[in-house]
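User: Can you write out an input/output pair for a complex, sequences first and structure second?

Assistant: Here is one pair. Inputs:
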Amino acid sequence: MSKKIASARISEKSSKLLQELNNSLPFDKVLYREDIEGSRAHAYMLSEQEIISKKDYQQIEDGLVEIYREIELGEFLLDGDDEDIHMAIEGRLTDKIGDAGKRLHTARSRNDQVALDFRLYVQKNTQKIGDLLLKNISTLIRVASKNTQTLLPGMTHLQHAQPINFGYHMMAYASMFKRDYERFLSSYERNNYSPIGCAALAGTPHPINRKTTAQKLGFKAPTLNCLDTVSDRDFALEILFNISTMMMHISRLSEELILWSASEFKFIQLSDKHATGSSIMPQKKNPDIPELLRGKTGRVNGNLVALLTVMKGLPLAYNKDMQEDKEGVFDSVKTALLSLQVLNEMMDEMSINVENMEKACMVGHLSATDLADYLVKEVGIPFRDAYHITGNVVNLAEDKGVDISELRFEELQSIDERIGRDVVALLDNRASMNARQSEGGTSTIRTLEQIEQLTCWVDSKR
Ligand code: ARG
């Protein structure tokens, strides 16, 4: 039911097509909680400042609480032809309480109102995403803790490079998620300022108190400049960017899970809960879940680029283009929340094939660098020369069809007599992994140290 409550200059009823293009209610109705929360705080401030009477305030407050209840119970459906959620709720309030309802919009514009609602939504969901990130970090730590001795071929260029342990690999992703968490947190802090009271663009002649509303709504303070505030969507861009970066990390992990599930690797097995079959090939078990997580990254990137593009040419202050800010954010937030929950469950329930991981370490002469490092450290050979000697040892192993760690002492010495007997033990893959004891390195001891540090960090956030 369109009451046209904000059309003092427009006499004709809008065309159906205009309504279809213009109305945001079909999607911004998800902001009803924030809209009501914001209006309650605004009305409270108006009455504190004696801009409206206590009686009007009480009617507004009761009316808004009642409308909230109606929406939650499905009694007020938000499917009318109101232009947006702000008009729908204000219209409903006025229908219920009459003149007092018409006073709610004093010293306020939809420009600061939408900036407030949307910011509240973004702040709330930033916290939800942060909590789920912490949960995922804890799960990765748990998987890592069980696998600090599990050998895995560490790769560069997707080629076997050096032996690492699987726990260390998991901790790499945990570290990415920690940065993601910190990125969300810093956006939260940077944007924790209240837009309400900016009115259309220039403030208001009414004696409002923006500190009151800021405090009531949980913000640190009011924003500095109203012209900026009503046209600022950096907070929305930040959550989109933060989600994109996080999804890029999830996508990289997903890609590895997909590879590791393939017959060529068989390093892991996803639980049947997280795999699907093929409609034609009865033998198949497909990693659809990580594939979808990888695919969803494309759509959240699209949402980021879309809003950057919407904003890039807008003059100050509010322009209706900015109504295009919401759907992408809603979509990215929904995608992020679901992806994090699914990822957590999947990582928690996947099984690890230790034997295959360790077998794979026998391919590719993973400990070759250890021989070069030995020649430098123990014999004093310059690294570049040691590198070439090691190359010859690798060629010998290739000729014999074995891994460098399987060469006998005599065979090693046939390449360079300075190679001592102790090298044989050094070339063992587990010894190689454990030799990397530099800070942040893969040795079990250093991995455990990383696990401990990150565990303390997670605890400090809870
Ligand atoms: N539905 C609008 C939006 O989402 C609300 C703000 C409208 N402001 C205006 N001056 N028309 O952006």
